Amino acid sequence: MELEFTPEQDELRTGVRALLDRECPMSLVRAVVEDGVVADALWKHMVDLGWPALTVPESDGGLGLGPVELAVVVEELGRAVAPGPFVPTVCQFAPAIREAGEAAVRERFLAAVAEGSLTGALAVAEPGRPADPAAVRATATPDGGAWTLAGTKTAVLGGDRADEIVVLAREPDTTGADGVLAFVVPRSALGVTPIRSLDASRGLVSLELEGARVDDDRRLGEPGPETAARLGRAIEEATAALATEIVGTCQTIFDVTLEYAKQREQFGVPIGSFQAIKHKFADMLIALERARATAYFAALCQAEDDPRRTIATSTAKAAAGDCQRRLAKEGIQIHGGIGYTWEH
């Protein structure tokens, strides 16, 4: 397993960071949060540079790159707190289509993702249930040449603006992995309820499926364990990408806090010179490097279809969660009172 970035991956990171430095200042993120501005211009730049096509197979009109290249891009998006549909579309919707869709469905939707004309989201989790295909309770009942959906989905990232949403469901009277399948459903066919969350830079919604009717040509796979396994792989890719995005944001917290500690003085010296502050930064750096290492290890396992991919993904998720909790807490504490202000 190659643990060093290639020159091409380093060049990709440099290009992504340069665009985000130029086109995604924090003022844009604030405008999205405060004024409801839609970051269409930023998305257009991403489309013009071919980012949505990153992991779409070449046979489906994409660039055919892998999870590591995706992780490189997503980490930089996290550093900039970049708004827009990239993560739900490229890291969630597209993998579900790629892993579980038949050729006709892949051709229909992935080409549109690659060219940037379609955005998407993934609806897995349900109230009180884990984000696991085998835990899905929403139902899909055959209805002539179509299927009728019922149930509720929650915590759907990007579901407020996505054109299409992959919805996981199961045939009635089935349990576990049996009967699991998914459909590509237009957002307009679903009941969408916004969720007010801490991160107002992106949309998070609940979906009411009751009565939605979906044609069979929008189905992903045959109902059963194989489709559940394929969707599970897509969820792993989505999870690792979110973990990597968190790493990027944590890096920015670390950088901003370190710079502050170098400049803020007490008793005539920078607070960064105090031993207690140095200890905090050492712990923050260890948490950050552990989260980054586990996130990229998960991406590598997925790229090489390593049998450790599932545990690697879970480890990356846990490490990213621990990291963001510690860095957010210590970042605020080191800043002191000003760390609680909106400006910070």
Task: Describe the structure in your own words.
The protein has helices spanning 7-23, 26-35, 40-48, 67-80, 86-100, 103-115, 225-263, 275-303, 309-335, and strands at 120-123, 139-143, 146-150, 152-157, 164-170, 180-186, 191-194, 204-208, 213-215, 219-220, 265-266, 269-270. The chain has 344 residues and is α+β, with helices and mostly antiparallel strands. Strand 2 (139-143) and strand 3 form a beta hairpin.
What share of residues are in beta strands?
Answer: 15-25%
C-alpha Rg, in Å?
Answer: 21 Å
Query: Which overall shape is indicated by the principal axes computed on the Cα atoms?
Result: globular
Spatial gap, N to C terminus:
40 Å
**SS element count, helices:** 9
**Integer average pLDDT:** 95
| Coarse structural class | alpha+beta
Low-confidence stretches: none
Spatial arrangement of strands, main beta sheet: 1-5-6-10
The total beta strand count reads: 12
Q: Summarize the helix and strand pattern as letters.
A: HHHHHHEEEEEEEEEEHEEHH
Most strands sheet? 4 strands, mixed
Helix content: 40-55%
List the keywords.
single chain; 344 residues; alpha+beta; four-stranded mixed beta sheet; three-stranded antiparallel beta sheet; 9 helices; 15% strand; globular
SSE inventory with pairings:
Elements: H1 7-23, H2 26-35, H3 40-48, H4 67-80, H5 86-100, H6 103-115, E1 120-123, E2 139-143, E3 146-150, E4 152-157, E5 164-170, E6 180-186, E7 191-194, E8 204-208, E9 213-215, E10 219-220, H7 225-263, E11 265-266, E12 269-270, H8 275-303, H9 309-335
Parallel strand pairs: 1-5
Antiparallel strand pairs: 2-3, 3-9, 4-8, 5-6, 6-10, 7-8, 11-12
